[in-house]
## 1
Amino acid sequence: MSESAIRLRGVVKRYGPITAVDHLDLDVPLGTCVGLLGPNGAGKSTTMRLLTAQSIADEGDLNVLGFRLPDESKQARVECGVVPQLDNLDVTLTVEQNLLVFAHLYRIAHADRREAIERSLRLAKLVDRRATKVDKLSGGMRRRLLIARALVHRPRLVLMDEPTVGLDPQVRQELWALIDGLRSQGTTILMSTHYIEEAQRLADTVLIMSHGRAVAAGPPAQLVREYAGQQALEVYGPPDRLAEVEAEALAAGLRTRRTGTSVSILGVDGGRYPADGERRPANLEDVFVLLTGEQID
Ligand code: ADP
């Protein structure tokens, strides 16, 4: 068995003139949670679709749980749990019935089905809702059910495409707790997200994508040290003053980023900088903006 749950090398996917995934290398070691982080259009969903063989790569090697894609994609899928970005639950069925359909699809032996469903219900904290029709569930519960459904057959690898997109912050926190629980039980997870905090909190390793390419990969803390240093200086002021500060920082060989009404000067560790501002620890958002050029919404 390979050490990696996922290993991609030189993967390319084109849509006409657009190269959605451009010579991507990706490793997901067994037992880790890897976050695919990037702005909209970076190629995250395309990468997820390649991994589930919903799309076929134009070039490159794809290996999932020791199976080569696309030739052995059926074998790989049996051992994967997939949490889609779009909710495709059957709204005419109850929570339990939705899980039962997947227990059948994944050919869980009849004798094991009940326990598999109960385990999934417990994991997603939906035991009390087992008999509720899906169209009566809140948005957060539906998301939890989507995750529970992907886990019903105890997959060795879980693929989550933007698991908390469009949810309010409180529901997002609930899902983070659920995903973090899976991670601490040793489930291997690949998760795409454009929420930096989500990647920072949940991922052991983050791969930052931009225009189909991997622009950096590593544990969040390491990426921060490597690209943004230890400390940043946040300088507030009117636009003219901020432009001046940016020019001065640039002349001093420092990197900056605009954050609404302020400028962050990165990598000011230890040294002095001739501007008044608030020092703060550098963070993954600094790295993201530096590498992708994208502001966060
Ligand atoms: P992300 O998930 O990071 O937002 P996507 O993988 O959805 O990015 O998209 C990457 C690029 O590929 C974008 O430019 C997008 O418009 C393009 N793209 C994705 N899917 C298709 C498709 N089916 N047909 C044409 N272009 C596509």
## 2
Amino acid sequence: MSTLIFGHQSPDTDAITSAIDFAEYKKQSGDSDVEAVALGELNDETKFALDFFKVPAPRVIKTAANETQHVILVDHNEAQQSVADRDKVTVDAVIDHHRLANFETAAPLFIRMEPIGSCNSVIYKMYKEQGFKITPTTAGLMASGLISDTLLLKSPTTTDEDKQIFAELQKLADVDLKEYGLKMLKAGTNLAAKSDKELIDADAKSFEMSGSNVRIAQINTVDLNDIYDRQDAILAAMQEEKDADNYDLFLVFATDILNSNSVGYALGATDKVEAAFGKKFDANKRLDLAGVVSRKKQVVPPLTEEFAK
Ligand code: ZN
Ligand code: ZN
């Protein structure tokens, strides 16, 4: 009955490495009965990172209560992004860097949340505060989460503290983190190998906004033409999922990670999207989102505000 540690569904690199790094933190705290697990298959970027540092992939779970009573959430807190039966287990701790929403517990718990670039940045600070050892592998994993979430420190979610942490991790890691980071990000943009459904599922999150069921997916690419070329098929896959899961709004935005621009597609409450960004979808059904790279900082807040009206 180990305590299970996991990040959000449709896990990204920060979710997976945060779980692994926080399991190691618990072990150094003297609590070795913990296991990092995942709430979904790893994406290509995360696979690249774990392969690079020769770290085994965490086991994927669908439910928790069948094997434990205790869980720790990293890189998320919202119920609809967590394990399906979260209400049947005790959440011992939350380590996160997102908005706090849809979260209540029966028992007291440990919470550490900071508005910084990655969950790994928070965990790094906790290691430092305790004087725990950070091996080159752990430093590499921490940097992977930070690089992934901040697109190599370029996203507006990047704080000065993240830049400082990146510099400190560089001293602990035994690879050039900038060079490695670009390779890792590119490994995550192999769009040709993915089906349309895989593209819109890989990095998707659900949000409850004033009673509306909102789904927001992000696709990273190094060339937006790869998205334009299959736009009709992507929109068809979106429509299918929207109907199946009853989303009031399904927004997919594709981000050019080299130029820090995005283009959005939406089904459902498109009027909310247009109002949130003060722009109209063009004749090609695209919404120009110049300079937008962060779902958390640049997409969720204006939409949440718009749905609250
Ligand atoms: Zn994440
Ligand atoms: Zn994160």
## 3
Amino acid sequence: MKLFGNLKVRENELYLGKFSMTELAEKFDTPLYIIDEDYFVERCEKYKEKFKSDKFESHIIYASKALLNLYIAKLVGKQDLHMDAVSGGELYTIIKAGFNPKKIYFHGNNKLIQELNFALDNEIGTIVIDNKKEYENLDKLIKEKGKKQRVLLRINPGIDAHTHEYIATSKNDSKFGLSIFDDGTISFIEEISKNQNFDFAGLHAHIGSQVFAEDSFFKEADRVIEYAKKLEERLGIKIEELNLGGGFGIYYTEEDSPFKLGKFLESYAENIKTSLEKNKLDVKIISIEPGRSLIANAGHTLYKACSVKETYSGKNYIFIDGGMTDNIRPALYGAKYEAAITNKMNDKDEVVYTLAGKCCESGDVIIKDIKLPKVDDEDLILVSSTGAYGYSMASNYNQIEKPAMIAVSDEAKLIVRRETYEDLIRNDIGDVLE
Ligand code: LLP
């Protein structure tokens, strides 16, 4: 298992900073989401330090869908990043954390009226319009409230980013945004830019997630910049901001070949600068929206091996105390992870196991066929790099409580408490049958 951030091995045992996994499990119980706070902060700093240029101001927008709770939102605020949201619930969480609403970008292909209302009432800095109907809804609400709203338009630049079909967003049949190949998009932009209720600031695009091809990002930037130039020329408008989205791929297992982040960000910024110069376009702000790339390798899940079962066919299962309810990614996308038995870090890998969860579902598998040292009941297993889209996509299937989450730095702090049985029936109305 690759040791990211502050994960270390001492005397055959896995530590995060000064805390052993055994200690953390004893104090907080398992399954447990563990955030390596200092490593998350280090990644934020790297983005700020490396993605910059003398040609534009850069906004690093944390894509909160990767992992969001009050503590994470506060941490992002402290790092002075911007943040995106795609629902009223995400907006609410971010605002409740005291994050500056002016630094929020509100995305989504189908923002509900109540969500738009909520965004306007809370003075969200930028709303990213997805389609005509949304624009009309927003226009009506803005008029009623007598406000003016800064907006970007989500466009689809038609770049094939070669990622999993479920997380590719820029093919021509994608549900997101409006195609740059459609003439109607230009007339629509003209309409928005002439509407006094709107401050039309520019464009947004996002080509997909867990993308490794640097080239796809460069191509996307070129296409968006060329399109922005075309808009300025045809419509006589000024584009203030281009938001190029996120999707920067990370390491989960040896099958992944992520780029070197610092180098990539420098050359990305350089490429954008060159493209702006080539197109003779001056844009004040260039934004990017990493989610996974900031948090995935800074988050891990600690499980207990409750029992080992060998099937009649000879397959060895480790039954862990969590599973698809705390991490749906393997079941949903065939996502792969690495893991280690945290009290046997230097022992020889000798048995091939499948890490299975506790749901009534054969597909409830976190890792298929991983070679590990021989497991004993009560051993602890850390599945690494689960920081993105684990907790945020967790469910209560089989009425299983969501795990607790801790942030580890100089201290280990509980930041999300473990759900209880009581939490599971909190919204049920018990007297309907009486
Ligand atoms: N910006 C927009 C508009 C997005 O839709 C997304 C992700 C991001 C930024 C951040 O992408 P990232 O840097 O995290 O790759 N549940 C899937 C990933 C879905 C991504 C959705 N949009 C997974 O678990 O792999």
